[in-house]
Amino acid sequence: MKDVAVEVAREAADLVRKARNAMVAGERVRVETKTSETDVVTAVDRASEELIRRRLAELRPGEAVLGEEGGGVAPAASVEGDADPVTWVVDPIDGTVNFLYGSPVFAVSVAAQISGASVAGAVVEPISGRCWTASRGDGAWLDGRRLRVSAPERLDLALVGTGFAYLAERRSRQARMIAGLLDRVRDVRRPGSGALDLCSVAAGWTDGYLEHGLHRWDWAAGALIAAEAGAVVSLPGRDPELGPDATFAAAPTIAGPLREAFISCGAGEI
């Protein structure tokens, strides 16, 4: 399943890269909005997902697909068994706003889930070509190099990633939370792609990460990569004190203090 995830994610990333190059050259791309005027979707998002769905139907016929643009049914959590079906969870461009503005920080994310849990996944960056992968129990990898989370000694030495909602009212609450955190950590980063934020924790490029409002396709591959690299990971619905839709990942050495810091700064009220 990991090999399939890599194959289709690479193919979609190639499509996205070519589309971005055409945009840079002056070609216009159709843009629409979803939940708000700041929540955008492009024709390239839809073309990427269509490619992924078509290739998965060829390589893994009969298996369900849940995608950001084309929808589908999320796999139900249950006691996993050999006969449980596979659902592919895909984000055709994670970081669409970055893509639209010309920033290179966006990726294609493809994951296989069984009983609601990710078992294999790939996150491919169209511009750099970097390929992040993981399969359950087999570690996390970046272009063949095994990943391991960082080990900061104290919370005030931790570099923390986050993201913000598209709705202005919620974004304001998130900003207040981060403002309260700033004097407790080394610094805060907001790259704009949840999948790559989770991969950054896996690589030790950041020490922790929290974001509210991620969907399954945002975290399905990245959270597995972070966990397989040794991160403490909490997914939406798992930790009400962080908020019912919070995604959290951190190096074990500061996971507890970082969680408590987020809670004390109002994470549960986001």
TrEMBL record:
Record flagged with keyword Cell division: no
This protein's record includes keyword Hydrolase: yes
One Pfam family cited in the UniProt record for this chain: Inositol_P
Gene3D superfamilies given in the database record: 3.40.190.80, Fructose-1,6-Bisphosphatase, subunit A, domain 1
Class of the enzyme per the UniProt entry, highest EC level: hydrolase
SUPFAM superfamilies: Carbohydrate phosphatase
Residue numbers binding Mg(2+) 1: E68, D91, D94, D218
Cofactor dependence: Mg(2+)
This enzyme's EC code(s): 3.1.3.25
Binding site for Mg(2+) 2: I93
Reactions it catalyzes: a myo-inositol phosphate + H2O = myo-inositol + phosphate; L-histidinol phosphate + H2O = L-histidinol + phosphate
GO molecular function, one term: histidinol-phosphatase activity
InterPro entries: IMPase, Inositol_monoP_metal-BS, Inositol_monophosphatase-like, Inositol_monophosphatase_CS
Source domain of life: Bacteria
Chain coiled-coil ranges: none
Alphabetical GO biological process terms: inositol metabolic process; phosphatidylinositol phosphate biosynthetic process; signal transduction
Protein keywords: Hydrolase, Magnesium, Metal-binding
Pathway linked to the protein: Amino-acid biosynthesis; L-histidine biosynthesis; L-histidine from 5-phospho-alpha-D-ribose 1-diphosphate: step 8/9
PANTHER family listed in its UniProt record: INOSITOL MONOPHOSPHATASE, INOSITOL-1-MONOPHOSPHATASE-RELATED
Its biological purpose: Catalyzes the dephosphorylation of histidinol-phosphate to histidinol, the direct precursor of histidine.
Family: Belongs to the inositol monophosphatase superfamily.
Designated name of the protein: Inositol-1-monophosphatase
Gene assigned in the entry: suhB
